[in-house]
Amino acid sequence: MSSFSVGSRDMEAIALGGAFMGTGGGGDPYIGKLMAQAAITEHGPVTVIDVDDIADDALCVPVCMMGAPTVMLEKLPNGQEAHQALQKLEAYLGRRADVLVCIEAGGLNSTIPFAVAAATGLPLVDGDGMGRAFPELQMVSFTMFDIPATPMVIADEKGNSSVINAISNRWTERLARCQTVEMGGAALVALYPMSGAQLKRGLLRRTVSLLKEIGETIACERKANRNPADTLTSRLNGRKLFTGRVVDIDRRTVGGFARGKATFKGMDASIGKTFTVDFQNEFLVASDENGALLATTPDLICALDADGGLPVTTEQLRYGLAVTMLGIPCAGFWATDAGIELVGPGYFGYEHAYVPLRQLT
Amino acid sequence: MSSFSVGSRDMEAIALGGAFMGTGGGGDPYIGKLMAQAAITEHGPVTVIDVDDIADDALCVPVCMMGAPTVMLEKLPNGQEAHQALQKLEAYLGRRADVLVCIEAGGLNSTIPFAVAAATGLPLVDGDGMGRAFPELQMVSFTMFDIPATPMVIADEKGNSSVINAISNRWTERLARCQTVEMGGAALVALYPMSGAQLKRGLLRRTVSLLKEIGETIACERKANRNPADTLTSRLNGRKLFTGRVVDIDRRTVGGFARGKATFKGMDASIGKTFTVDFQNEFLVASDENGALLATTPDLICALDADGGLPVTTEQLRYGLAVTMLGIPCAGFWATDAGIELVGPGYFGYEHAYVPLRQLT
Q1: Is B1 on the interface with A (CB under 8 A)?
Q2: DSSP result, B85-126
Q3: What is the CATH number of domain A227-359?
Q4: Nearest C-alpha neighbor of B68 from the set B155, B153, B177
Q5: What residue ranges of chain A have pLDDT lower than 70?
Q6: Which CATH number fits domain B226-359: 2.40.390.10, 3.30.465.10, 3.40.50.2300, 3.100.10.20?
Q7: What is this structure's pTM?
Q8: What is the ipTM of this complex?
Q9: Please, which residues 102-141 of chain A have a Cβ atom closer than 8 Å to chain B?
Q10: What CATH class has A4-207?
């Protein structure tokens, strides 16, 4: 048994870790943190449990928000919607959920499940389906273990909802994405209902603990007036890509995604150089002025404010902001052929092959 | 009791009447006719019943195809899909349907319900929700009687489906339309599940009989080498708008609809004049060269081949085709304020007010 309890103060660290591991996307966890803290204050702390302590026949359900983070900031969830999505899925399945799951260990979706867990009294498993954030719903370890995303419920704040059943997780993404756009660019979803046995196969373990640890590290380093970049790269086997100031930012909401490209002028050791980082909700590819890769999806590209050391999301990027970009190796399963097919550069329309971070200098 | 039986030969007349009352849209009933005839050959004839013979607590369900007629012609349904949409809705409701309903008395959707009725052995009610065809799913008498379109099932030929629950029939349209587009531009749906009591309030009565009668009239007139235009305008209190030859046709598939405009050079009594007819799946507005209205939605604009006398759908319009355009008064409920709000010129983006056909010369 290695369960632990998450109270209102712990949510600060988890949200901070989630913002960092969200690789610039997944939405600012701040909103989800407030929702979780309000629910914890009302209903009590959340129990985070080890996947091995879950019964094989338990019903385990990820709940999350879907859509463009830029929209989520303007169309705040009311705190009940994620819970309602779960309830609608339970009604459809004719069975109550036993365990909640984080679909991604990053961004808003690393905090929203805590709000639902507190409100329902259900435990949350220590793990997720990505070990980071990704923009599309089929981009999870569960897809690689043949676990269907459906039946899936998608719901909005107005009272509209759908139960989707699809022939593949890519099809689920298509049918859910178009409805997310219609619903105003953001929606709440409950999906990948699975058994405890399936969860044991598919889950990327202990990433909720990791978020908490990363958040505590960032807070601790900031308290000591140190930028957390060095400690985090060392702890996560990553490295600094560059420190630079935003000189240009191109940002559009297209097809339900926040897409764009940020250009940076190098500072410190990188002075005189130019860098670009592309994103689709999340940071996807970092390159230098000659087009040479610095890091590429599925490896993590994480941004810290060069001054304060806080994580920076794509929607916070603005002209003049100084940022330290870090590369962090992705979870091992993403570096397989099946993983690269699902979330590698080719899927996002890039011509370059995946080169692991450790082979790039 | 005024039920009647529809066999394979009767489907010829119903499809012909459906093509005429489809006002150029709703899809060519030919495909649906073949599906219905195949099902009738296999399972026996369909019983069409009067709405007053239905129990108040019966479950009555319209089944139909949704999407752009241009797409339906290229992506033929396999005959099982509409039945599958019904079965999925029955599974969701936990109850079998007692009666099937035509959502519209025109186009493909006036024949598809016969295929499902034959396959299931269920009776079909004599009536529909429009008395013509319209492009969007909230455009039915049922909406005017506050009958919700949901729970609604949308399904494609690949095996994807959704159950939609929405706060209004307009919202149902939005969530279903975007999925129709994702599904390839056409999908099968079962919607507006309602009680017999609701059906008695909302149904436009005896329009299935009317389609059969119109089809028989067209066939009879053609046999006698007469164009059916005069007999039909007399029977339906309509009038000829013009006879002309297509000189230009602008056609696009946009947002899941077939939209466009056809321009005609007048013939016979109209020689020397130019006419235009706008359509969104269905013919919406007919005007002369000075922009004067000849007929406008919700009144029916129906096209007959000037030579053979057969109904012409928007996708059959081609350069050089000679067509007689008829105006037919819509069902009375469409001419109310609530009806005009739902399907009048303003809804489709026109600036002109609705002027009833009888006031236009």
Answers
A1: no
A2: HHHHHHHHHTS--SEEEES-SSGGGGTHHHHHHHHHT--EEE
A3: 2.40.390.10
A4: B177
A5: 1, 69-79, 256
A6: 2.40.390.10
A7: 0.88
A8: 0.83
A9: none
A10: alpha beta
